[in-house]
Amino acid sequence: MPAFAFSSMRFVLALFASVHLAAATPASDEVIYPAPEGINDVRHEDKLELLKGALEHTRKQYGGYTMRPAGIVMNKARQQVTLASGKDLTLGWGSTSLDMEKDFLPIRICLRKGLGGFRIALIAEGRQGEFDKVRSLDDLKKFIVGQGNGWAGNELLTAAGLNVVTSNYDSLFRMLAIRRIDLFPRGLSEAFSEYEANRTAVPNLAIEQSFLIRYDNPYYFFVAKENTRLAQRIEQGLRAMIKDGSFDEIFWRYNGEWIRRANVNERRVLHLQNSELPPQTPLADKSLWFDPAAPLPK
Asked: What pLDDT was estimated at residue 86?
């Protein structure tokens, strides 16, 4: 097992332990969130820190809590069905859309400040020359794009005329290696962390260097429609974290290195229009979003 995976597992186990130790008073909120989809699935550590921080920041007003992963691994479609019941899953996360906000209660604070809308592709090693020739979306239509089953961005990419193939998350890295797909677009921070987590198992994995796909892609916590208490608690907690700086501390700790390595301003930008973006999206609140033109913190 890769050392990176062991490190991730140790973090998650330590987080679980700290949560249950912290909940010495009777728990008034039970948070069950999606389980990782594989041993190298490192996508959720920052979300779990934000979730724990939000619950801790609201302990005085709302009382104790427990948080744990779901007992089984679920893809996005299964998560949504289960979250709607509010039993085996009480909290989910993902890109928002008109349908998501119709079916669930969104907490409209983007967990990665919009980084998910800066899409950098994972590709197979040795193929960079092919992608150096991509100058437009029409050029990109010649390639097969890999996406996860049930992901919110699938319809957006298909609507743009891209050739999208879906599979379960873990399989997509191997599909790149054997050229069943040509590229796997990831959020700016995801591309680098997932490359590091999977390059031992998939040695010919590489990060595309010349372009990014850009669209508005808020990524929220969601709860069942009737779970207004948990939604209010998490929103209050996240806003308290924004105010005291702990939200940005987590954001930059997890994403700062990748933002610097991405060289966003040196890449060609292929813009997509997100027709599924809900009108309530708080794009005007600049404190909630990453600005690539702003100076990076030291």
From this structure: 84
